[in-house]
Amino acid sequence: MGFKTGHERLGGRKRGTPNKATTDVRASFQQLVQRNVGKLQEGLERVAADDPAKFVDLVARLAEFCIPKLARAEMTGVGGTTINVTVRRFSEEVNLADARRVVAAIPTESAKAAEAQRVAAASTVPARDDEGEVF
Questions:
Q1: Residue 37 is assigned to a structural domain of this protein
Q2: What is the rounded CA–CA span in Å between residue 77 and residue 111?
Q3: Is 26 strand, coil or helix?
Q4: What is the DSSP string of 1-36?
Q5: What domain range includes position 58?
Q6: Residues 6+ positions from 36 with CB-CB distance below 8 Å
Q7: For position 123, what pLDDT does the model report?
Q8: 128 pairs with which residues across the strands?
Q9: Going by fewer Cβ within 10 Å, which terminus of the chain is more open, N or C?
Q10: Residue 72 lies in a domain
Q11: How far is CA 48 from the centre of its chain?
Q12: Beta strand ranges found along the chain (DSSP E)
């Protein structure tokens, strides 16, 4: 006969408490890496000389343990509208005038604030006195 759903927790570690064996293994591995940083650097340099693509792959895989992955963020325009993005590959065809035109089309913070004020003003009911006059 097993426990019923929702029973009181009895014994064991508190939630979030790391397992002692896992903590010990991580500490040992960290010491191993710290003692052999020079050898790891030399090894990576040899791989880079022989196979640059493999070197980049190794560095990218190692980075996952050092740099946290960023969460995906969704962006919307004013009032939840969609944002259209055009990605252009840089080439000789793209000139400085094109780049300036694209940058100029990006709304500035002041333009965003003005749009927010316009939207707020459009949705605000004007105040009226007892006779119905706007004040």
A1: yes
A2: 13
A3: helix
A4: --PPTTPPP-SSPPTTPPPHHHHHHHHHHHHHHHHT
A5: 20-66
A6: none
A7: 61
A8: 134
A9: N
A10: no
A11: 29
A12: none
Domains: count for the chain: 2
Block residue for tokens 């605000």: 124
User: Which pair of structure tokens corresponds to residue 67?
Assistant: 């740099």
Residue 5 lies in a domain: no
76-87 pLDDT per residue, tens: 778 888 887 777
Identify whether residues 60 and 86 lie together within a single domain. no
For residue 3, the model assigns a pLDDT of: 73
Q: Whose structure tokens read 């293994």?
A: 25
Q: Residues in the chain with pLDDT < 70?
A: 1, 88-96, 107-111, 120-135
Q: Which residues contact 54 (CB under 8 A, 6 or more apart)?
A: 47
**What is the rounded end-to-end Cα distance, in angstroms, of the chain?**
75
Please report where in the chains the tokens 């963020």 appear, as a residue. Answer: 73
Is there a contact between 107 and 101 (Cβ–Cβ < 8 Å)?
no
